[in-house]
Amino acid sequence: MVTNAALARLVSPHQVQASHFETGLPAGRIVQALSAPDTLQSVTQPWRSQGGRAAETQAAFEARVARRLRHRERGLNNVDLMMLLQEQHEGIRELAVLPAAPATTTRALCQTLVVMPGPALSDSDDACRPALSSQHLAAMAQGLKAITSPWLSLTCVNPEYVPVSVSWDVEYVTGLSPAMGYVRAKAALDAALMAWSRPSDDHGQPVLGRAVTHSAVRDVLHRLPEVATIKDVYLNGPSSNEPTLTPGQVAVVTCIPREYTGLTLTWLGGSRDIELTAGQHATVQITLPTTAAGHDGPPAEVYLVNLETGQRLPTATTANGLWSEYDPDKLTFTVHTPAGLCGIFRLGVVVVYPRGITLQSTSIGESLTLYLRQYPAASAS
Q: Which domain of life does this protein belong to (predicted)?
């Protein structure tokens, strides 16, 4: 418990930078008070200060007053709702109001706000997919309902993050290896198309509902001094494919080397995780790299690997491990689980092309998880 704690106010705050208040004062820096009462014997600061705030500038004051006069603490339209929510919750990066469902005689007007939090407000550990907890979203909606129409049904939701793979076919300047050129191009694309994932790159550009386009990728590559010629750009595989987004979606870009273009794997049904009982089997669907990847012909070999051990899955029955059967016509693997085996297994696919080209799906984040449990033993009667 802290007793006799007080708020320290700096004399002449305009003489120091605003960052002075953000970093806080180390313990022991405050040693005396001005105009202290006679009964105050001493002043000590045992802990680092926190919650410092610079004085409001005249421009910030005028902007705050203008917003207050605009909405007058009432959410009467979409603009008011967004302004009020941003004032009530610092750290919101971007907001969008989805088109409202029309009211009927049996249903009230429904309004949905998409809230994309910044890194300080986010409840998610994934910097590429910032999100709020359901409790956090419910509290936001409840606060807005108190200052809107009682006939309005209002909800706050997280953005829907849509994966978009980006590949490119370029010629780098003479003397630069393709590997180093790829690293620099990827860094530039991440900074331009995924700025919110790194606060140092984030300049607040709107991303909700903004699709990644071929021209946007080309513009970034054109600005790189390491790139001599741009031949083609691929989004989600084919060069002609350009994904579209709804107002509540955000594109999450994954840069992959051109030779991996189109390589994916999922369990039958499209999931990345599956739960089985020992003795059952499951089907893995794979998609081989497209013609855009530049390979001369079909692969010489395709097989699954156990990512925990780094070992290739056997293609014949084993008593103590997973094994698989490959159907090259359907591009599927049947993964078999022997009785008595249990645990968590992560699987990837390896594609081997002629001329010594080997592609590993984990290099582009493509892997599957198998949760395997033993069949429950029968209880004795």
A: Bacteria
Contact 264, 287 (CB under 8 A): yes
Q: Is 359 left (phi over 0), alpha (psi -120 to 50) or beta?
A: beta
Q: Write down the architecture of domain 264-373 according to CATH.
A: Sandwich (2.60)
Distances, alpha carbon 132 to alpha carbons 44, 117, 253, 344, in Å: 39, 7, 21, 29
In the chain, the percentage of residues whose pLDDT exceeds 70 is 82
Three-state SS for 189? helix
Sequence-ordered alpha helix ranges (H) in 170-323: 178-193, 214-222
Q: Identify the CA nearest to 247 among candidates 205, 212, 210, 209.
A: 209
CA distances from 376 to 212, 282, 369 (A): 49, 19, 22
Structure tokens at 306: 């156990």
Residues 191 and 198: beta-carbon distance below 8 Å: yes
Q: How far apart are CA 372 and CA 240, in angstroms?
A: 41
Q: Whose CA is closest to 225, among 257, 192, 167, 180?
A: 180
Over residues 254-306, the pLDDT tens digits come to 898 888 888 889 999 888 999 999 889 999 999 888 776 778 788 999 999 99
| Cα–Cα nearest to 57, from 7, 17, 23 | 17
Give the integer Cα–Cα distance in Å for 373 and 248: 38
Residues 53 and 19: beta-carbon distance below 8 Å = no
Domain ranges of the chain: 15-55, 58-157, 165-255, 264-373
Q: Per residue in 82-139, pLDDT tens?
A: 888 888 888 889 998 888 666 554 455 678 889 999 998 999 988 899 999 999 999 9
Centre a 10 Å sphere on the Cβ of residue 75 and count the other Cβ atoms it contains.
23
Question: 54: buried, middle or exposed (CB in 10 Å: 19+, 13-18, 0-12)?
Answer: middle
**Joined tokens for residue 41:** 């014997």
Specify which residues 277 forms β-bridges with. Answer: 373
Dihedral sign, CA of 25, 28, 31, 37? Answer: positive
